[in-house]
Amino acid sequence: MSFEEVSKKIKEHYGIYVPASSTRAIVEKHAHIIDKNLEKIQEKLPREKTADVVIGESDGGMVPIIKFKEGTGDRRKLRETAWTECRLNLAYAKGSVTPKYSATFGDTDEAGRLLLYVTDLVGRQETTKVHIVGDGAPWIANQVEEKFGDQAEFLIDFFHLSEYLHQAAQCCAPKDLNPWAATQKQCMKNGEMDKVIQELENHVNNENKPEDHICEAEKSYNYMIKRTNQFNYKEAIASDLPIGSGEIESGHRSVVQKRLKLPGGWWLKENAQAMVSLRVLRINGAHDQYWKSYRMSELNVN
What's the predicted TM-score (pTM) here? Predict the structure, then answer.
C-alpha cells in the first residue's frame, strides 16, 4: 500500500502517528539494502531438490519513472517523466505451485542473468530440461539462447500468437473470422505450422487486394516467418508443458504493479528498483531471512 496508507493503518490499529515521510524513509532504507543483497539473502533459503523439468516465463511491463535534467534552480522545472520497462521473470519446477521471481530495470543481459538465476533457485541442474514461455519480444528469445544454450527451448505464448491470427482473419476471411482463426490455431497446436504460413502467404501474394490496404495477414506472416523455431506447441502439449505465459502477466500485477503503479505515483529509477526487489523478496519467501541477516549484521548496509 502507499506510504500514506501505512501511516493511517498504524494510527488506526496502534494509536501511534507516524508521518508518511518517516514510513517512506524506513521502507526505502530497507528496500535499498535488500536490493544490494537479494541474491545473498536468498542463497540461505532451503534449496529446491534437483528438478527434471523447470518452467520459466519472462515479460516486460512499464512503470512510471521520474528523472531530473542537469541544471540549477527549481527542480520541478527540471523534472522529466517517462515509462520505463521492468523485466520480470519467474521459474518453478514442473508440478510445483510456488514459483520464484526476479525483476530488474536493468538491461536485457541483466534480465537474462536473473532468469538463469531463478531457474537455479528452483532446482535447475545440468541435466534439467528448461521450458521458457514469453511473448514475441526478441530480447527474451535471445537471452534464453545466450544464457541456456541447448538446455532450454523457447516457446512464444500461444495467446499472443492468437492475437496475430485473429487480426489476420480480417484480411484472409472477413466473412468467416472466428472459424478461420480457430482452424489456424488448431493447425498450430497440431504441429502444422507450414499450413498456416502458406495460408497467410497466399493472401500476401494476392494481386487483387487494394494497394493501400494495411494487410494484417502480412504482419502475421512476417511475425511467424522470423520465429519458425518458437512455435512447437504440439510437443509442449504432449509433454504437459504450458503454452501460455499468463502466470507472468499475473505476476506483473501482483509483484510490480500492485505497488509501483498506484494512481499518481512516480518513482526515481533507483527507488523503483529497490522497491521491486523488496516485493520479490517477500513473494519468494525470504522476508524472515532478511530480518535475521540484518539483525546479525551479515548484509551490506552502506
Answer: 0.90
